[in-house]
Amino acid sequence: MSEHEGTELAERLNHLFATIRPHGGHEYSNEHVASAITQTGVTISQSYIWQLRKAKKNNPTLKHLQALAGFFGVPTSYFVDDQVASRVKGELEALQREQARLASAVGGGEVRLMAMRAGELSAERRKQVMDLLDVVYRLERAEQQGTTED
Fold it and tell me: What letters, b where the CB count within 10 A reaches 16 and e where it falls short, cover 38-76?
């Protein structure tokens, strides 16, 4: 890989770290990624990942690229193919927007309280609550569109 390709690889790898996060919301550490990859049978160190992210190393093995891609759930070609990288970045941006929307919806204490209470109900009662929510949802959508449902 040329120096430019190494920088591009670093940018793409850093983009994955910045956008694909565990449920806690914090960025994966190099150590966590190295450990998870090593558990799959591919030996990689946190310092090597750091070097790739800083473009200090720019010629990883195919095995390492495959392992990094596998960890982040992207195709290996993401690292070397501009079209694939562009498509994946678009998909990741859409995913981030959806996650932000969901976090905003769930962020309210009322939503969490409803979910906690619903979790304590029997399956039959949860279905009744869902049916009721569906009715209320349809009514609100109709109101937003300027019509009412009978």
Answer: eeeebebeeebbebbbebebbebeeebbbbbbebbebee
**Token pair listed for 28:** 């994966």
Q: Positive or negative CA dihedral for 13, 18, 23, 24? A: positive
Predicted confidence pLDDT, tens digits, the chain (150 residues): 545 555 899 999 999 999 998 876 789 999 999 999 999 999 999 999 999 999 999 899 999 999 999 999 999 999 999 999 999 999 999 988 887 777 777 666 677 677 778 888 888 988 998 889 889 889 988 888 886 545
| Helices of type H across 54-146 | 62-72, 82-107, 109-119, 123-144
Q: Could you tell me which of 90, 36, 25 has the C-alpha nearest to residue 68?
A: 36
The token pair at 77 is 């070609």
- 71, 77 contact by CB (below 8 A): no
- Supply the DSSP symbol for 121: S
